[in-house]
Design goal:
Residues 51-141, 142-256, 257-359 form the Cadherin domain. The chain is built from two helices and 25 strands. The protein is mainly β. The chain has three domains: 29-132, Immunoglobulin-like; 140-247, Cadherins (Immunoglobulin-like); 254-360, Immunoglobulin-like (Sandwich), CATH 2.60.40.60. A four-stranded antiparallel beta sheet has the order 1-3-6-5, with no helix packed on it. The radius of gyration is 54 Å and the shape is elongated. The N and C termini lie far apart (217 Å). The chain binds calcium ion (4 copies). The site of one calcium ion has 8 residues, from loops. Residues 135, 137, 167, 169, 173-174, 229, 231, 236 line the site of one calcium ion (CA).
């Protein structure tokens, strides 16, 4: 019994000694920010940082305390890819960014801070910080610049080009508007139709042809397209071009070069003489078909073509019959140029013109008799002049001879 009493007293004594020599050690914790309700702490929780916050400089100072005044070591268990402890002392840690924030990559970050007093298991504090968007992305034309080919026989109202424009920023920073102007505009040939997404950040745009194109009038259109976001502080724009190449189709007849065609012929002009040449060329400039020529009967005019022939390939017109006094006057020959369509995939097209031929009385033929007379007269005049001179010389000689006598 005595032994038990001693042991019991000894145990009590040991307990008292232990309580005096080893007190319980409490873990550290973040310090509350005065006047916050609900209470906030100096630990960055729910703070917001703009995505253009610079990397390096201190952005926040954590403050913690330890009931036992142990030196606190701050650490980052999660989130060290973006955040770092730049420097620290026993109660404060200065935090900076080690990588740029990017709202478009992550709108928030989880960080687990650790507070280690060296005596307790490190205290973990899980916080969230939020990234604030800035207007750091210009709107983007997907697949730009744009080039399309449009055949000139496309109907008005056809959509010739569709494209997407988008802006990856948020809110007003990503809300975009689109406009289009035509370089060297001669009127509204194209219009822009826009289908805007509900958040305003994506536009599906159609370019619609308001009128039928005409390769022979214009082969190229260039549209300047501008997109602008609605950024609060700075607005960003992007520009691109849409090139519309007009593709020729066979839709033009031949046209004549060198009109009007007027010729003079004498009724004495020899047969097979070339009178005049007509020339026509396909109006489809990029794919000219060859043309053939022919006379066309035209009862409405004095168009007797019997005296003439035309070379179907060259358009050269010849006299093929000897004219006479009865032929004098005006002739009006109607001529057609026909496109030759070797592919046979469309109808030939043609154009007509007129050649006005005036037939005059024969030009004086070369007269050898009159040439002989002219030569005779000239010779006689020459002889007469020589004779007169000889007589004058002889008279002067006689006069001088008499005076000398
Ligand atoms: Ca933007
Ligand atoms: Ca942004
Ligand atoms: Ca043609
Ligand atoms: Ca054409």
């Amino acid at each position: 019994m005595a032994i038990f009493q001693l042991s019991s007293n000894t145990a009590l004594l040991l307990l008292v000694v232990t309580a005096v020599t080893t007190h319980a050690n409490s873990p550290p914790s973040f310090v509350a920010i005065p006047g916050t309700n609900p209470t906030k702490y100096y630990n960055m929780d729910r703070d917001r940082y703009s995505e253009d916050t610079p990397v390096g400089p201190v952005i926040y100072t954590l403050i913690a305390s330890d009931p036992d005044n142990d030196a606190i070591v701050f650490g980052i268990q999660t989130g060290s890819d973006y955040f770092g402890v730049a420097s620290q002392n026993n109660t404060h840690a200065r935090i900076n960014l080690v990588k740029p924030l990017d709202y478009e990559t992550a709108t928030q970050h989880q960080i687990i801070w650790t507070l280690n007093d060296g005596n307790n298991i490190p205290v973990e504090t899980d916080i969230t910080i939020y990234v604030v968007d800035v207007n750091d992305n210009a709107p983007l034309f997907i697949g730009a610049p744009y080039t399309v080919a449009v055949t000139e026989n496309e109907h008005a109202g056809t959509t010739v080009l569709s494209f997407n424009v988008t802006d990856i920023d948020s809110g007003a920073n990503g809300r975009i508007t689109l406009s289009m102007t035509e370089k060297n505009s001669t009127g509204d040939v194209f219009s822009l139709s826009q289908h805007v997404s509900s958040d305003g950040r994506t536009i599906l745009a159609d370019i619609i042809m308001l009128m039928k194109l005409n390769f022979e009038a214009r082969v190229l259109y260039e549209l300047l397209i501008v997109v602008k976001d609605d950024g609060k502080d700075t607005q960003l724009t992007s520009t691109t071009t849409a090139t519309i190449n007009v593709v020729d189709v066979q839709d033009e007849p031949p046209y004549w070069i060198g009109e009007p065609y007027i010729a003079l012929v004498y009724d004495t002009t020899p047969v097979n003489t070339s009178i005049i040449t007509v020339f026509a060329t396909d109006g489809d400039e990029s794919q000219k078909r060859p043309v053939e020529y022919e006379f066309v009967d035209d009862s409405s005019s004095n168009s007797s073509v019997n005296d003439f022939s035309i070379n179907t390939l060259t358009g050269e017109i010849f006299l093929v019959r000897q004219l006479s006094n009865n032929s004098l006057g005006e002739r009006r020959l109607k001529i057609m140029a026909n496109e030759i369509d070797e592919s046979q995939d469309s109808n030939d097209t043609s154009s007509t013109t007129y050649v006005e031929i005036t037939i005059l009385p024969g030009a004086p033929e070369h007269d050898e008799t009159s040439d002989d007379i002219s030569a005779f007269v000239a010779t006689a005049i020459t002889i007469l002049i020589v004779g007169v001179i000889a007589v004058v010389v002889m008279a002067l000689c006689v006069y001088h001879a008499k005076e000398n006598v």
